[in-house]
Structure formats: structure tokens, C-alpha cells
Design goal:
About 25% of the residues lie in helices and about 30% in strands. It is of the alpha+beta class.
Length: about 160
């Protein structure tokens, strides 16, 4: 008997006014603490040009993904793209394809906006399935100290 991965029929849509409390709950429960929820709240206030999507099952928001502006700077250039963080799914709905659906839908929007890249600081066993690779391959380093090389990734679009 083969193991089939159960995927749930969720609807992906843009964040709407009034979703804030449910998004906060999803992030807090998915990460087991409030840091990511606090980051989302702060970015919502500061960055109107964000892409914020939710996964909904019936009336409940069960997943969330956020893309915000990011820059890569060199001595000669500044390239503007997007950063993916955080992506969260309620624990009861994890490993059912909802996170992948959020990432794919978000990347489609980012590509349609002609964004040249997306960076992510995330699980090195998860994001490569979407085409992400180590940013160090392109001599790009995280601005944060102590970030493992394999966890800081980029997707060139």
C-alpha cells in the first residue's frame, strides 16, 4: 500500500482588512511563539507594497505567507526584489500541501510583477523544491550575523 500525501482543498487569497487577528494566531501557533507574528504586524504597518496571502479552509485562515521588498547591494548596483518571510501553516494543517500552495501562488504574483529575485531565510530542505538555491552561489550574504549559509537562499526569476 502506497503512502499518499493528503492535500486539503484550501483557497488562497490576498489578505483583507479584518484578517489580522487570524493571521497573528496562525504565525504564533506555527512557530510556537510570537516573534514572527510581531514581525508581520510591524511589516503590515510599514510596507504597503507587500504581498500578503492567506490559505482559507471554510471560514478559518489556516496559512499565511508574506513577501516584502528586499534589496541586494553591491559596490556598483542596487537591485530591488522581494523577501519571503514568514510562511506559516497551523500545526493541524501542516504537511498537507498548504504551505507549498501558498509559496507557489505567491511566486506567481511576484513573477507577474517582474520582480528579479526572491530571497528567503528558511529551511534548506524545503525551499529548493521551488527553485531556491544558496545565495552564496551568487556571492550574496545575509545582512544578519550567524545565518547558516544553507538557510539563506535566493530564487532568480
Amino acid at each position: 500500500m502506497s503512502k499518499n500525501k493528503l492535500t486539503l482543498n484550501s483557497i488562497i487569497r490576498s489578505e483583507l482588512i479584518g484578517d489580522e487577528k487570524q493571521i497573528r494566531k496562525v504565525n504564533a501557533l506555527a512557530f510556537g511563539q510570537d516573534d514572527e507574528a510581531n514581525i508581520v504586524d510591524a511589516l503590515r504597518e510599514k510596507l504597503p507594497e507587500r504581498i500578503s496571502l492567506v490559505a482559507k479552509m471554510n471560514t478559518e485562515i489556516v496559512g499565511h505567507i508574506l513577501f516584502t521588498p528586499a534589496v541586494i547591494e553591491s559596490d556598483k548596483n542596487i537591485i530591488r526584489g522581494m523577501g519571503l518571510a514568514p510562511m506559516s501553516v497551523l500545526p493541524a494543517y501542516q504537511n498537507k500541501g498548504i504551505g507549498s500552495k501558498l509559496v507557489r501562488e505567491g511566486l506567481e504574483i511576484v513573477k507577474a510583477n517582474k520582480t528579479p529575485f526572491v530571497i528567503v531565510l528558511g529551511h534548506p530542505n524545503y525551499y529548493p523544491r521551488f527553485g531556491f538555491e544558496k545565495a552564496s552561489k551568487y556571492q550574496i550574504k545575509s545582512e544578519y550575523e550567524g545565518v547558516p549559509d544553507e538557510a539563506f537562499m535566493i530564487l532568480i526569476l
